[in-house]
Each structure stands twice: as C-alpha cells, then as structure tokens.
Design a protein that fits this description.
The protein has one helix and eleven strands. The chain is 3% helix and 43% strand.
C-alpha cells in the first residue's frame, strides 16, 4: 500500500489513505468446511484451496483504495477508530450504503440516506448529527465502503 499524506485538521474521521497495489498477492489457506459458531465439531484437516484476499475483497482493483478511520461517528456500524476501510470508487453510492465523502473540503465516513427527495450523510452513532446535503455545499462522494478490517477484542 502506498501512503498518501493527509492533513488531519481537514479530515475529522479519516486518518490516512492508501492505494491498492494489485501486484501483491495475499494468499492464505482456506479450510474447505464451514465452521459452526455454536457447538464445536470434529476438527477437519482439509484445506480446500488458497484464498487470495485481494480477489476476495477487491471487486475493482484500479478503483479501490484503503482509508484508516479516526473518530467515533460510525461505531454502531462496526467502524471504530483505527479500522482500515476498503473503499470502491466504482461501486454505486445508493441509499443506506456507507460512503467516504468530501463535505466542504473535509473527508468523512457516513451512511448515505434518502428521505423524501432529500439526501443526508448519517452517522451510525446517536451522539452525532446527520448532515443534509444541500446545493450550496461543496460535496462529492469518493467511494463506497465495502469492508471494514479491525482486530478482534
């Protein structure tokens, strides 16, 4: 991943941006059975194939980048400070999708909502207010968040 510098004063919820480098293969063993989350099942030592995480997680390699999150406005969506988001610029930003947007020069991650012909960027944390998208603001959607990567607690 190639790091792009970012001024944190103008990016309250995005800490860093990284480009996707498809030339780096990331293959991990894929076990050929589903793992139950309930009662344990007998162990099976069958590796079905190698899973290339790039192919599994990236639909449009030339339109994909990664961002590192800062802030708490999306915690109820499972997006926490320090998480890495996979963002697809070729995916369609539609109602209820989580997007990366620029609002008056500031990057943010929010859920896109339509309501009676009006559009909003809505945080998934009740402590934050929605942002109505109006004609007078400088607004652009950079892409749709497809995955969030974070460590398990």
């Amino acid at each position: 991943m190639r790091k792009i510098s970012l001024n944190l004063k103008t990016a309250p919820t995005i800490k860093e941006i990284f480009r996707f480098q498809p030339s780096i293969a990331l293959k991990c063993p894929l076990i050929g059975t589903e793992i139950p989350a309930g009662f344990p099942s007998p162990a099976q030592d069958y590796i079905e194939e190698n899973l290339d995480l790039n192919k599994f997680l990236i639909d449009h390699p030339t339109a994909t980048y990664f961002v590192k999150v800062e802030g708490y406005s999306m915690v109820d969506a499972g997006i926490n400070p320090g998480d890495i988001l996979i963002v697809d610029r070729a995916a369609e930003p539609i109602h209820k999708k989580v997007v990366i947007a620029i609002v008056d020069g500031e990057l943010t991650v929010k859920r896109l909502r339509a309501d009676k012909g009006r559009w909003f960027l809505v945080p998934d944390n009740p402590e934050f207010e929605p942002i109505e998208i109006t004609k007078d603001m400088n607004f652009q959607i950079w892409g749709v968040v497809t995955y969030a990567i974070h460590k398990m607690k």
